[in-house]
Design goal:
alpha+beta, 6 helices, 4-stranded antiparallel β-sheet, 4 strands, binds zinc ion, 29% helix, single chain, Nuclear Transport Factor 2, Chain: A, 162 residues
Length: 162
């Protein structure tokens, strides 16, 4: 019997991501779109969550602006990458845990990216999803801040009219 090395879960994800496939955010290829940002954050422990993603990944691999961060977070919701969502959530508003349910995300439409300063920006988007066979729309204006080269999701508000 040949000895089989145990495959670590993070390596399995990398192998899957290496196949060319469309990115959930609408990009043409997951690996070169949001996948490269997700790749460094598989299962951070509590201690590493406290360090900015930019420092853990190197500055090349963290989204360079709030819009790219927003897209990578949408893709993380689609792929149920809770660790990535928590790591990119500002510590002031980050929930202790994240319950990613079985909602099926159908698509992302970016409405507006407003850069207020080098460290503050908002992204307005509509995300479509399905719960129990019924389609819904999430229309949100998300606030992002940048600290130490890392963009973070802070919170969002929900405009009444689409
Ligand atoms: Zn993407």
């Amino acid at each position: 019997m040949a000895w089989q090395p145990a495959i670590r879960p993070e390596l399995e994800v990398k192998v899957m991501a290496a196949k060319p496939n469309p990115c959930p955010c609408g990009g043409s290829d997951y690996t070169t779109c949001c996948g490269r940002y997700h790749a460094g954050v598989f299962a951070p422990d509590a201690e590493s969550l406290m360090k900015p993603l930019a420092i853990r990944l190197g500055r090349q691999t963290t989204p360079a602006n709030a819009l790219v961060m927003m897209r990578s977070r949408y893709s993380a919701y689609v792929l149920k990458l809770g660790a990535y969502l928590l790591a990119t959530w500002h510590p002031d508003t980050r929930p202790a845990t994240l319950d990613l349910n079985d909602d099926k995300w159908l698509g992302l439409e970016i409405k507006k990216h407003i850069v207020e300063s080098s460290s503050h920006a908002t992204v307005e988007f509509v995300a479509r999803y399905k719960i129990a066979g019924r389609a819904h729309r999430l229309h949100e204006i998300s606030r992002f801040v940048q600290e130490n080269g890392q963009w973070y999701y802070v919170n969002g508000n929900f405009p009444q009219h689409l």
